């Protein structure tokens, strides 16, 4: 499992864009993790799946509601990462009203989850290999803080916890 002080893996996530701009085309666009984190402070949180109850009712809304507080604490971007495809993440972004607040990034093949060692096997629930629920503060590609949830829990990866770490 990735640890504080380590660099995020050189992987690619996908982001669905509904609006053309800054060289981004409509539809899924590749996000090179190394390039996208360079020189930035990122509040990254990951969860098992889009449209799932805890993720939709508590996890994403907490970050959306606190976007200005994160910016005031020096965070450049907030990322939500899930093992879903870019089209599902795009639909979920519309549902959660994340535009301009939280980047909804797809880890379709679980490559990022596997490279960080933060996977969750939900095969028994019909969902296959997923991302564990966690949050991390990343500065210039390096993990500054990491909050990994116990299975079935939502206690340490919430927006309030990561925001307090960003302010510290």
Q: Which percent band covers the strand fraction?
A: 25-35%
Radius of gyration: 14 Å
What oligomeric state best describes the polypeptide chains here? single chain
CATH topology: Glutaredoxin
Largest sheet: 7 strands, mixed
DSSP helical segment count: 6
Q: Which geometry do the CA atoms define?
A: globular
- Class by helix and strand content? alpha+beta
Helix content: 25-40%
Write the H/E string, N to C.
Answer: EEHEHHEHEHEEEEH
The separation of the N and C termini measures 24 Å
CATH architecture call: 3-Layer(aba) Sandwich
Whole-number mean pLDDT:
93
Strand order of the largest sheet: 2-1-5-4-3-8-9
Q: Could you name the CATH class?
A: Alpha Beta
> CATH homologous superfamily?
Glutaredoxin
The number of distinct β-strands equals 9
Low-confidence stretches: none
Catalytic activity: a hydroperoxide + 2 glutathione = an alcohol + glutathione disulfide + H2O
Organism: Rhodoferax saidenbachensis
Protein name: Glutathione-dependent peroxiredoxin
InterPro entries: PRX5-like, Redoxin, Thioredoxin-like_sf, Thioredoxin_domain
């Amino acid at each position: 499992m990735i640890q504080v002080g380590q660099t995020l893996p050189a992987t690619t996530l996908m982001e669905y864009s509904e609006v053309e701009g800054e060289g981004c085309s409509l539809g899924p666009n590749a996000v090179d993790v190394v390039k996208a984190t360079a020189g930035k402070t990122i509040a990254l949180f990951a969860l098992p799946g889009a449209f799932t109850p805890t993720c939709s009712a508590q996890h994403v809304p907490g970050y959306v509601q606190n976007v200005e507080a994160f910016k005031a604490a020096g965070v450049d971007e907030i990322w939500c990462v899930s093992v879903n495809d870019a089209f599902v993440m795009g639909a979920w972004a519309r549902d959660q009203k994340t535009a301009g607040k939280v980047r909804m990034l797809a880890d379709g093949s679980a490559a990022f989850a596997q490279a960080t060692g933060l996977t969750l096997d939900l095969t028994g629930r019909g969902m296959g290999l997923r991302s564990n629920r966690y949050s991390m503060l990343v500065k210039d590609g390096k993990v500054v803080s990491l909050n990994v949830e116990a299975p079935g829990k939502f206690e340490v990866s919430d927006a309030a916890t990561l925001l307090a770490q960003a302010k510290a």
